[in-house]
Amino acid sequence: MWRKRILRISIMKSEGLVSEECFVFADDSAGNPICMKIGGEDKESIFFCNHELENTNNGYFLMSKVADSFDEFIKKLYIIE
After folding, report:
1. What is the mean pLDDT of each successive set of 10 residues along the chain, which is 81 residues long?
2. Within a domain: 57
3. What are 35's strand-pairing partners?
């Protein structure tokens, strides 16, 4: 399972769907990448990348900021019962 995820992330990067300034470290149940910006504006912020929508300015998946830091992201996680 992890091999498929790593391969999918590599394909997204090589096809230019995710910025080189992003480190993809997870995905949701629908396969949308979750990444940390490692360069540029909003460095160290966490983003949700919608694989069904494209940013028309740069061709990347549409990214939505979900947290200002990894610590904040972890604190926002919860289990749905």
Report:
1. 73 82 89 92 95 84 95 93 84
2. yes
3. 24, 47
